Amino acid sequence: MASESGSITGGMLRRRAFAALAAATAVTRPARAQGGVSGKVTVVTSFSNDVTGPFKRAFEAAHPGTTLDVQNRNTTAGVRFLQETRSNNAVDLFWASAPDAFEVLKRAGLLEAYKPRAEGIPERIGPYPINDPEGYVTGFAASGYGIMWNERYMRANRLPEPKEWADLARPAYHDHVIITAPSRSGTTHLTIETILQGEGWEKGWGTIKGFSGNLRQITERSFGVPDAVNSGQVGIGIVIDFFAFSAQGAGFPVKFVYPSVTTVVPANIGIVKNAPNLPAAKAFIDFLLSPRGQEILLEPTIRRLPVNPATYAKAPAGYPNPFTGSIGMPSLQFDVGVSEKRYPVVDALYDQCIGTNLEGLKRATKAIGDVEIRLARRDNAAARALLAEARALIDAMPVTVQEAASDEVAGAFAGRGGGPRQAELEQRWAGFAREKYQAAAARAADAAKAAG
Amino acid sequence: MSLATTQATAAIQPAPRARRWPARPGEVVAFALVALFLLVFLVVPVVTVVTVAFQDRATGGFTLAHVGDFLANDLFRTSFLNSLYVSLMSVVVASLIALPLAYFTTRFEFRGALLVQTLGVLPLIMPPFAGAVAMTLLFGRTGSVNLLLGDAFDINIPFMEGLNGVIFVQSVHYFPFILLNLTASLKNIDRAMEESAQNLGAHGFRLFRRIVLPLAMPGYVAGASLVFIKVFDDLATPLLLNVREMLAPQAYLRITSVGLEDPIGYVISVVLILFSVLSLWVSSLALRGKDYATVQRGGGGLARRRMSRGQAVAAYALILLILALVLAPHVGLFLLSIATIWSFAPLPDGYTMAHYGRVFAESSQFITNTLLYAGLAGLIDVILGTTIAYLVLRARMAGARWLDYAAMSALAVPGLVLGIGYLRTFFGITLPDGTSLAAFWGVIVLALAVRRLPYALRACTAALQQVSASLEEAAENLGARRLRVVRRIMLPLMAGGIAAGFVTSFATAAVELSATLMLVQSSNDAPLAYGLYVFMQSPAGRGAGAALGIVAVVIVGLSTFLSHLIAERGGGRRSA
């Protein structure tokens, strides 16, 4: 981000902005410095000041006469705000990570379609499409999920550095891991869904329950995870990459790794229906996707992955690049249709089988881990067989992959009548998991006896 | 014996059961205004949101099926019992913290009493997120205390884990409700009561248990019921400690899932509201049929006595110990605000003032907004609180009790529900300049006032309970009109309680976040809590967030000190 390149891209941007203005000739606002783009652009966002600040300054400099009014709200509050104020909308843009929030807004008819003018941005990043096919949502940056840890914590507890999701299921990590509930974080949901699509329903849930048995906490806020790791309350967090990178940028003793099964998901922006300042809203999206806007993503306090592959040429050495296959699973094709159909079902399954039964799951996992450590010293076939049974009990799911997407189950979550209600299903699933975990703990106790 | 003494003094007046004054037009108007306020700014917005609890999701018709689901669910039954247990235990622990502070500082010649009472309010001002981070840095599993204990003795105390962790944090956070109300109450006790008891041979702990505490009961019950209801309805602390098996977090988690209209969340909200009103009714039973009013106000309350040297040392040691415990989160917050990096270590790696520079450069408008909003909200609250207390205790109007219950139910309404309700109710209304009413900053003030009204209301009610109606009757007999009686007799005698109410409402409104986050429409109109939230969402903003939190604590602390000072001076003039 040398100043020369800044001025070059600034010039390019001005040309682009003029093009944008030409497109918006219907607007008859009094022309300011740049032509038609002027006035206040109101953005509702879940991003912190550290992210919005540099964009605000650069955008206002590139378009004199505009002010970017940033309203920080968490994703839930932001979505509710747009829903409740649609009758007299005063917001131009919604800017956030969580893809599910945009899905909700799009379905509610709260977004305006826009095809950005930026060039050189591919269709997909990893397995995930960057933009909404109908143009309601535009991806401007990408982020991958991975494992973050606090080095001091790991040293003090003599823990090895993890590399893969399966590593986190090892007994050594018991009670040292933290995650956000997928029902609370759209990006965690996508990680769970990616594992389920990448490894299949049964095996995938096995992997998820494997590391979930070692959890210390399931937080309700995605930032709670990096917060706990940064301050050393918990050693290892399952987080989206920029949380770790920006923590490193702020000086915290943390490290991060992308496991080989991971997904790279776009962070998004969309124009709100009936935006009061439509031309400027479009100009801001174009600015985000412009070379200058994409470069801002590389700043140490932001650290997100640009969606324009050309921008990586300006990135510091070692900057992860999803377009060269260094992260993500190029082989995996993420099926958006499958994901959408079972979205709330996957969340509820995680909440009921793991969230509310975390104590039971941890007890069974710990019991199995203890026997495993003993077996590593002195093997015993009978005990191994019992452990396998215990693991199968933990991995059992109350619904099959077909049932999860069936009209009966998915309908209960959409509020359609006829079938069982959501609360009834949840009660059933929680009871199922509780019984299985108790049985698994009992089986592990038998295995401990067999091991002698 | 204590009550016998009370009634002996109070014998000059008839038991205040029967109506003493016919309904006055002024009282009817006051009733109507308060009822209208509560209807428009509390009942209607909340009802528009929680009706989902009784709607069939397919047809939109009325149904009780969701309530049935709630009752049939094991998780919710466990959650209910957990919430009940935690609330009761928190009242016990909070009382243990508050009683010595209140007793020693009001009852004895105690240097620094005002300072102790001011510091005692600070725990209420636990800024969102920042307070939580500071608490875990100190008391968490790898917090400073446990890291030091682990090095020295190889032990780890789970302060912040499970239900006991919730009880610990809640007690430290909310004991000031008891402290403030109890202190106000103690100051109102006629010193003759205590002197009579001493003449009859009671002293020491017996004097406290049999005379002082029973006479201060209205204040204690007011504070304890606030602690109970607040802990029952609080979601921030359980969520911070990751305890989900309680009612309020269950409701919150269900209401705030993106894109899901799960009716159970709203059913739980309704249950919380009903239970809060029920517990309020139970606490009013504790005071029923007893008269706490005393006629004399001797020099601002109980005679202060000197402690012997040994007693003094013990009392100071106890109070310092308690203060060290309850102010630890603020010490942690301060350290965080001047820390460079603080991670997995008993103390930060290094120190800097840069965070304060950033806060003052970027967010000074937050400070003025906060003072304005919280100050106005506190003012609205004491006006409404005094009016409701008057209507309930003096005018004895049919239905006045329901104003009290309705106002108190605000404690149980999640801020998010109130925020959504406000948008739904007021967004369609446009102001003359074309913007929406909901975009006007005054709406934030009203939301804060409604959310914090219960605090001021309990304090004002307790204060009026201790004022003897015979004083007002005497003034009326001497020809004073009712309004003049209220202004010249009743209000000055209630001053301490009103100040306590203002302080609690103001201090807690200054750090409110959940409704604010929904209603703020421009960062120029945003209060401090919002700025704090914005900072605390990024690793680099943690120190700045803590610095802003310290600014909030200092501002609210100073305001508290000032209002105590004003209330004290008012007391001095009264006795002159």
From TrEMBL, chain B:
Family matches, as CDD domains: TM_PBP2
Keyword Disulfide bond among record annotations: no
Membrane spanning stretches: 28-54, 84-104, 116-139, 167-186, 207-229, 264-287, 313-345, 371-393, 405-423, 429-450, 489-511, 544-567
Subcellular location: Cell inner membrane; Cell membrane
GO biological process entries: transmembrane transport
Gene3D superfamilies: MetI-like
Source organism, top-level taxon: Bacteria
Classification via PROSITE patterns: ABC_TM1 (PS50928)
SUPFAM superfamilies tied to this protein: MetI-like (SSF161098)
Topology within the bilayer: Multi-pass membrane protein
A GO CC term assigned to this protein in UniProt: plasma membrane
Domain ABC transmembrane type-1: start-end pairs: 80-279, 367-563
Chief location bin: membrane
Pfam families xrefs: BPD_transp_1
Family per similarity comment: Belongs to the binding-protein-dependent transport system permease family.
Protein name, entry field: Iron ABC transporter permease
Organism of this sequence: Roseomonas indoligenes
